[in-house]
Amino acid sequence: MVLENDIFLNEVHLKLRDEVKDFVKWVDPNLLRAMDAEQVEYPYDFYREAGRRNLLGLRFPKKYGGRELDWVAECVALEEVGLFGCGLGCSWSMPVIVGEAINTFGTEEHKKKYLVPILKGEMVSAEGLTEPRGGSDFFGTNTIAEKDGDVYYLTGEKRFIAGAKAADLFLLYARTNSEAPGHKALSAFLVEKDMGVEIAETYGLMGFRGMGTARIQLKGAEVPAENLLLGENRGREIFNRMMLPERLTSAAGSLGMRTALELAMKYASMRKAFGAPIRMFQGVSFKIADSITKLDAARALIFTAAKQADRDPNSYETRRLVSEAKMFATQVGWEVVNDAMQILGGIGYTQVYPLERALRDARLAVIWTGANEIMQLIVQHEAYRKLMGGKLEKERDIELDAIEAHKIAEKVYE
Which of 305, 316, 289 lies closest to 249, judged by CA? Predict the structure, then answer.
């Protein structure tokens, strides 16, 4: 594609990109049409083929079915898969997300029992965060887990779970301490569907169709104690780590919106008005220039965040950069698709071109895996943490550069 950038990539990344491109070309357009028409419950063939080609969970150890690659590789792959929109991108990403919890916090038995079949494309996984009474307020979770001997009984609801109707395994959070505040009371569990997960509602969505997005109910679901991850009341540690794959995959997938821009560029080169191709008019050409620049900036930020995540996945710097990447890239994806539709005009609003589907999908990206307003809160919070934490001692004090810097009495703050 004309809008790709190789600056951050090595030979392994470039080879992987070609491999994923080949897979992307393999996907039948009829699958996209059927998903958008809600004629399929889940893209099983896509998911299984990705597993067969050893393309799921690229970062995980080879002994479990991964390739032991880095976050840059994962983002390279997701940019290519992202051209399909959020649906197939999410199917591809879920092994990365749920797999992160299993690989980082799970036991060897968890990895053999769950991670291996997930990476083979034989087991579908899903993650349950949002509840009917809370979205961004994750630590306000009301689902409870009560232990009786070697079993936890989970009771509650989770909503907006992508892939819920097809999932064999859920990563779910529940309260295991009724007295403590949420951040000290939650625990994470690996819950198989047959343990008592019920589909309560399947959603009709504006976009992101064909993914079996649903609300689930847990009415005393029986979960073996060995399916508790890390330990009781340590869900916060898992959740904080999980926001890395959640948000990096969302960010990288949004780069797939470059295809909307490329479609608009081709159209603008062929479509004529007032005796000339419309790309010759500034109203069109400047939109194209702005979109190209935004995508390049988003890609650079994503790969910077990816490299930082490989260096230190648990640092405050990683938390800030990943949040920036998610916030910026998903907003860019939304703006790029909007401008592409504006360039095509009325025909872009029809189903003759796939822009209207891309537009509906792109609108979701700025909401899920943490709304972009939450990303803004995190970004400024981590920046202030560094500023106020006395970590800038080596920096120049620019206040002293003012002509009247000596007038300390004029610096009144209260």
Answer: 305
